[in-house]
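## retry 2 of 3
previous attempt timed out at serialization; input unchanged, resubmitting
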Amino acid sequence: MKMNDFMQNLRGGRKPDYINASYIEDYTGKHAYIAAQGPIGEDECHGGRRDSTVSDFWRMIWQENIDCIVMLTQCVEGMKSKCSRYWPETPGESIQADDDLNVNFYCIVEDEHSFQREFVIRNTTFTQDRPRKVLQWHFKQWNDSSCPENAGHLLHFIRQVRTSTHSAPILVHCSAGVGRSGVFIALDQLLDKLESDESMDIFGIVNHLRHQRMNMVQNAEQYCTIYDVIALAVKQKLGQEDKDDLTSLDRNRWLSTVSLSANTDNKHI
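## retry succeeded, writing output
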């Protein structure tokens, strides 16, 4: 499947390779998301059968002005590689993701269900371009082809992402970029409907996703997860369940307050 819209060149960069990613519209027709396969690292490229996509992944982030990544997979699940660790290992470290792009791992915050990492990307060729901040939300409790461990934890995570400051499109990835990614995108749109007291058509939203990218919401378990999470959100709105507590966001607000300039020094917490 080659549903890829990211074939433009970075200024001064080499020609991009193919990357498995698709624009995804919301119910208004806006390109609100990019659903992508998790990057493949050098360690997974055995025998030259495929190339690493880590540099292409970061090039796409730069080209599309992405400032929010949602990661729904672990790098390794059940002894199987699902996604490369495409960021530096330790806060304060940097990687050269492309001929032109340097990625600095600025800081990390962890709560019970997720990691929040902040990266600073710089174009090292066109130094007049301002550095850019990218916040990655990484959910910890959801294995491939299954339901998340707790519907309430997933709902809390999605609300954290929705409450954070970001612009469209949001980059959403799991391992293949279809199953868990489709569930997240469907739930984000359905929560929009719920908050504005509009009717919710779960089948219609999933069907619309599948017309844009094959196998979005990959199996019956994942489809049921959408119903479980939305049912919980409705009960919370009606006062039948305790409302979600987002106070943990208070300690994360500083993530979006770091001021950047073209000559900002690398920092780490």
